[in-house]
Amino acid sequence: MNQSDKHPVIAVMRTLDLATLRLSAGAHFPDHDFCVMEAVAYVAGEAWTDTPTCASTVLGAFLRCWNDQLDDSDRQMLVSLIPRLVGTAAPYEVEVTRAWMAVDWACRTLAPRWLVAAGLADVALTLSSANSVTDEQAVDAILPLLREGLRQARDARAAAEIGAGDAAEIAAGAAAEIAAGDAARAAVRAAAGYAAGYAAESAAEIAAGDAAWAAWAAGAAARAAAESAARAALRPVVMELQQSALDLLERMIGAGG
Prior knowledge:
mainly alpha
């Protein structure tokens, strides 16, 4: 055994003061502004990037998108994940498993919660009680349920439009956005065995932050006051889903062994 065998090379780690670090949206030059994945690359000693080789492809896809969807205040909850993401890179089979976990969450947790907020508890329960989405057969089984959720959410949104800016309208819009196919398309791509990170990214696009319903809340200035009240009314749902997304990330990290 030579000396290098006894003492394998360890990547140089840099330190960040996580207590004072403020994450920002978007990509950055090496100017002391970081998104969550740039910070992971930095502490791992890698060149400046938001796709560090030390981190899971799927977790990176999820977090790059979620980092940019959150507002400046909520984004800071991602800081504690930075050291935990170093070393999460895993074989392709593990990454596909993580991608399915993200799709399953989008189908059986995220979409049902918005359906409940829109007053559609029955179809929400049917979705949340479906079998886990882990393969193509599960996709075939859950697609009709997602389509029914989409139909009911669209009907609910249309019925609520007489009170523009109403929380139920926005929740129905968010549920429709999710059920319309983002989760299902992600599942199909994961099942096809390529672009595993796409599944997590698609789930993240509609996950937990204001982005899940911001498009439905946006409108003419005359609606601003009503929308503000509706967004405030839905804040507990957003916070609940943010915590759920964090729990999902913990499970996805754990899937790497």
